[in-house]
Amino acid sequence: FSLFAYAIPFIENNIIFHTDSVQAIGNVRIDVQKLNIDALSMSAHKFYGPKGIGALYVKEGIKFDKLQDGGHQERDKRAGTENVAGIVGLGTAIERIYENFDEYNEKLTNLRDYYIKSVEEKIPYIRLNGHRTKRLPGNSNISFKFIEGEALLLNLDFKGICASTGSACASGSMNPSHVLLAIGLPHEIAHGSLRITIGEENTKEDIDYLVECLVEIVQKLRNMSPLYEKYVKTINNEKGE
After folding, report:
1. Which of 42, 62, 70, 93 could form a cystine bridge with 49, CB 3.0-4.6 A?
2. Burial class (CB within 10 angstroms; exposed 0-12, middle 13-18, buried 19+) of 96
3. What's the rounded Cα separation, in Å, for the pair 94 and 78?
4. Is 176 within 8 Å of 230 (Cβ atoms)?
5. Residue 224 pLDDT class (50, 70, 90 cuts)
6. Distance CA 15, CA 7 (A)
């Protein structure tokens, strides 16, 4: 599939092509010219920069309305005193992440694959959501059948582990990920999803601890689930046990 071919209708109809690259920076090499990107946004905290600062790339010649009236800062597009410390922090962070791009992403990929393999080996009735390798290096999303994702999160929190059931944008929502529902997952399976994002400071020992906790927590929650009990009885009856 050609991204250029995808962009042709935008080019022919003078439609501005903006991409939200918040999750891609640091994990993907982006050539805005090759991909025909007119505008691209990023957020520093996603690549270990300070919170509260982002950047917007706009191709030369692309015009858009002023976002905030007042002064003439930021090329007369957004009034207000610039966050100089944040800007410097963003610039330093993005230079740093791309200086070690290959080593950084290889480490995340290896830890991600190790995590997925460990969960598959030690916990039954799970589903990996998305492609095994065609995904961000440090990202995994796994559904644990017969349990609620929120209950899983609470128990992980008690163990000192931070995770989520969906995107950071939907944090706090009790609804399952609309993306998982869109790819065809039943509501009850999507509700049992867990998103783990691995960072540069994580180690193999961290993954071992995470999986050890998951084995314990998932079994505890399933033992409380009438759906799981019913499923196990059905399986045992079919086996003649």
Report:
1. 93
2. middle
3. 22
4. no
5. very high
6. 10
For residue 68, the 8-state DSSP code is B
**Helical segments of 13-61, H only:** none
Extents of the domains making up the chain: 3-82, 101-239
Question: In the predicted model, what is the mean pLDDT of residues 198-207?
Answer: 97
Q: What share of the chain is helix, strand, coil (3-state, %, to 5)?
A: 45, 15, 40
Which pLDDT does position 45 carry in this prediction? Answer: 96
User: Domain 101-239 adopts which CATH fold?
Assistant: Aspartate Aminotransferase, domain 1 (3.90.1150)
Question: For residue 174, what pLDDT is reported?
Answer: 61
Q: Is the CATH code 3.40.1280.10 the one for domain 3-82?
A: no
Token pair for residue 124? 């039954």
In 138-199, DSSP assigns E strands to 139-144, 193-197
Active-site residue list = 169
* pLDDT value at residue 14: 79
User: What are the phi and psi torsion angles at 147 (to 5°)?
Assistant: -135, 160
Which pTM value belongs to this model?
0.84
Q: Confidence class of residue 172 from pLDDT cuts 50, 70 and 90?
A: low
> How many Cβ atoms sit within 10 Å of the Cβ of residue 119?
22
